[in-house]
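Hey L., structure's done. Input below.
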Amino acid sequence: MSQNNQVDFAALERFGAKCTTLRKEIAKIVVGQDAVIEQLLLAILAKGHALLVGVPGLAKTLMVSTLAKALHLGFKRIQFTPDLMPSDITGTEVIQDDPVTRQRAFKFLQGPIFSNLVLADEINRTPPKTQAALLEAMQERKITVGGADHILPSPFFVLATQNPIEQEGTYPLPEAQLDRFLFLIQVGYPTDTEEDEIMRRSALDAETISTVLDGNEIEQLQKITKQILVSDMALEFARKITRATRPNTEEAASFASKWIQWGAGPRASISLVLAGRARAALHGRPHVTIEDIETVAYPVLRHRLLPSFTAQADGIAPDDLTRKILVEVRSKLKLSTNS
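Output:
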């Protein structure tokens, strides 16, 4: 095993109970979308950020705001628009008069990024200059203004939303920023039964959400997640998956040179292990399974694989590439379907 710490089984059991309660609270407001909610929880447990992509009206913003209500955390929603400036996110320095000395001095006024849970709504509606204001915050958990570092509160998460069909007045996220997101979560349409329930609830008053976890408890859960054991086989499986995405390399998948223009970097390998640990913990297991790695591979690689023009012409999406890669890697490592 790659982890030396002992797993606290009692804490793991309490962990599962808390997460079950959290899901029930969210379900009071959000109908269905179980997979999306699970991936949001995985991102939080793995100390990662998530990008939710879906057409308008699928409750992306509602899911994040409901999650914020169930967590006793600071929450800020930033509506990204074409005229939004970086200082509107990070904050700015202003000149103030000292009432005693009458001298003028710069004072930093914090922006909405100084919160535990930040919702970057419609993140692709603002220019790259403003999008880049999140880069340092997402990676370093701090921002730099006027040469001074300002540490962000802990825990800190960015959950962003994006509309995939909106093109006019939008600015696609740079690959470097996409790579900062642990997951790209696809939000799909509800089932027929779920849509019926949504319609019926629309005439009712919203239920009250109870707080389930606070910042200290979340940090404790993150520590438990780090204790989850990862076998050498699981590590090799995650590494081989990432390396198979890179065309024109020895370990590339057989179709990579044809269908993949650019593959995933080392951050994808790290993300697979982090997310695998989080999924194992969420399901009450003290160790990561091959199934955990396979399940999280889709949201981890979805925004890190750049399909070639040939793949786009053939209708091959990133999830299709991931599925084929998983099959090839399993075969090379001689893993059974029950591993």
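DSSP finds 15 helices and 13 strands in the chain. The radius of gyration is 21 Å.

-- N.
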